[in-house]
């Protein structure tokens, strides 16, 4: 039997699009009060089996009930991750309209054009970070993001950092963003994750300056020099004083595999993948968080039917990849200063090249 930790090398791009058929698009806007955006994960035509697990106490979501294994819809064409808090969920309407034009969705009538696209979505809180509380994604932003995804070649490299739904993301007082990672298991199954790191909790150990996720990924890590860490703490305290109020909230992730999963198995994958979030951000899943993980399965590879535990290696990989995606988001982010706040990046704070 394959052991749960039997991971091998990352996929070709070390990103979500290493799961064949998935594409990722971003749309964002900066300046003149704006610092927000939307990210769309576009499934292959015909959709992918999908599920969700919501652990945060203050989620902003759309169409997540459709993903319950007890309910009718089996496959979805796209997942939307967006800034703008609950207002930003309007972005899903633009994705839905685009999918309808392509004839993609749940068939509900005799005409092939009679479809209803089911577009699950979740949002992060970034309101006012660009300076204008009313600057938030809308249907046009969602349409732009899904069009960007559709224009991409198969297996494209996914942009990371302050893009799409990660444009206005902040983790603690440190600039957050989008990160992604993948692995090909010994069984040949590909598992990948994309995260939007935006949390009230911290991604950095305040005692040492190490990224929490790196401690789980690498075990012993080289810690920043004491004087560098003290300078970083001072700069973060100054930024927090200027920004005013605690940072808000919500880390989102999409975990995907090319394995053939049922909706119930996909829901289990979404649930265990939250473990990866808890390794990289502390605390998580509080009442004012909306922490949410979606799972997608394209069904290109069958699990070993002779082993009732064949799913275990995928579950373990999903959690590991969420951790790594959050770390990559923090390392890819760049410092931002707007009328709405000062958000230094981890790389700037700790003088990483």
Describe this structure in words.
By secondary structure, the protein is of the alpha+beta class. It has seven helices and 17 strands. It has helices at residues 91-101, 139-150, 212-218, 226-243, 263-280, 312-332, 346-349, and strands at residues 23-31, 34-42, 48-54, 61-62, 75-76, 78-82, 106-107, 115-116, 121-123, 170-171, 174-175, 177-184, 190-197, 252-259, 292-301, 336-338, 341-343. The strands form five sheets. A six-stranded mixed beta sheet has the order 5-3-15-14-13-12. A hairpin with a 7-residue loop joins strand 7 (106-107) and strand 8 (115-116).
Defining key terms:
six-stranded mixed β-sheet, five-stranded mixed β-sheet, alpha+beta, 7 helices, disordered N terminus
**Mean of residue pLDDT?**
94
Number of DSSP E strands: 17
How is the biggest beta sheet arranged? 6 strands, mixed
Structural class category: alpha+beta
DSSP helix fraction: 25-40%
Cα-atom Rg, whole angstroms? 19 Å
Sequence of strands across the biggest β-sheet:
5-3-15-14-13-12
Report the span from N to C terminus: 42 Å
Determine the number of helices (DSSP H or I, runs of at least 4 residues).
Answer: 7
Q: Approximately what portion of the residues adopt beta-strand conformation? A: 15-25%
Name the poorly predicted regions: 1-7
SSE sequence, one letter per element: EEEEEEHEEEHEEEEHHEHEHEEH
Looking at the structure, what is the overall shape? Answer: globular
